[in-house]
Design brief:
It contains 1 helix and 6 strands, in the order E-E-E-H-E-E-E. By secondary structure, the protein is mainly beta. The chain has one domain: Nucleic acid-binding proteins (OB fold (Dihydrolipoamide Acetyltransferase, E2P), Beta Barrel), CATH 2.40.50.140.
Length: about 80
């Protein structure tokens, strides 16, 4: 896996598959080479401070979790751009 960051477009969605109820998650927008169900780990405040469906551009890197699952990681302190609310 590369440790370089790259820009990607994401959107927030509701995910009710969590242990304690509904969560606001982020996923890549289509057409960027990543599956739409791939998780994007990013700032919780960014996700919570905008309506569900908001689209963003942010810098991420591809990482592999302990369970071997790939996901995209954005430093929670990184800047991001709101594309559409």
């Amino acid at each position: 896996m590369s440790t370089k960051t790259f820009d990607i477009f994401i959107e927030t969605v509701t995910d009710s598959g969590g242990k304690t109820g509904n969560y606001i998650r982020a996923r890549p927008l289509p057409g960027q080479g990543y599956p739409a169900d791939m998780r994007v780990s990013c700032s919780k405040s960014m996700r919570n401070n905008h309506p569900i469906g908001t689209q963003f551009c942010l810098a991420v890197k591809l990482v592999v979790g302990r369970d071997g699952t790939e996901y995209l990681y954005a430093n929670p302190r990184s800047n991001y751009e709101v594309l559409a609310d």
